[in-house]
Amino acid sequence: MIIDKIKNLDRYVDLVKGLDKVVECLTEEGKIDREKLEASDVVSMYNQGTSRPKDEPAFEAHRKNADLMLILSGQEEMEFLAEEDMVETVPYDEEKDIRFFKGRGWPMRALIPEDYFYIVFPGEGHKPCVHYRDSYAFEKYVVKLPQ
Fold first, then answer.
1. DSSP letters of the chain?
2. What is the pTM of this model?
3. Beta pairing, strands 43-50 & 137-146
4. Domain range for residue 24?
5. Based on the structure, what is the number of domains in the chain?
6. Is residue 16 a contact partner of residue 145, using CB atoms and an 8 Å limit?
7. Choosing a second label site near 142 at 20 to 30 A (CA), which of 2, 22, 85, 126?
8. What CATH number should be reported for the domain holding residue 15?
């Protein structure tokens, strides 16, 4: 997993396949140009909403794609767990490139603020958009990066 400011995305182009196409959608101020991103051939989904209690969603993981989460406004609290610390609850769906897990032990947590991003790689379990205390609003893009 990688966490950093959106304006620093270019630092990771050599490490993450497909990231160069997202970097082309940055403005001079280091923000995401939404129109440019949506017009590109990058698979992205705009998402806004309110966080869920941490126990509500299951952990998810992918085999083919890394998830790039670009936090546009608000914040996102997430949990992260290594694959060996999870027990599969829903088998892998190849078409959607997703499987679901229940965690064992204590997951790592991160609070990702506005204008930051994080990348979760294939095999890394994550629970996006959760909260431990008070719920919060968020606005983000989820970009699928084939690995």
1. -EEEEGGGGGGGTTTSTTHHHHHTTB-TTS-B-HHHHHHSSSEEEEEEEE-EETTSSPEEE-SSEEEEEEEEEEEEEEEEE-GGGEEEEEEEETTTTEEEEEE-SPPEEEEEETTEEEEE-TT-EEEEEEESSS--EEEEEEEEEE-
2. 0.93
3. antiparallel
4. 2-146
5. 1
6. yes
7. 85
8. 2.60.120.370
- Reading the chain (147 residues) residue by residue, the pLDDT tens digits are 999 999 999 999 999 999 999 999 999 888 999 899 988 889 999 999 999 999 999 999 999 999 999 999 999 999 999 888 999 999 999 999 999 999 988 899 999 999 999 999 999 999 999 999 999 999 999 999 999
What's the token pair of residue 112?
A: 């990702």
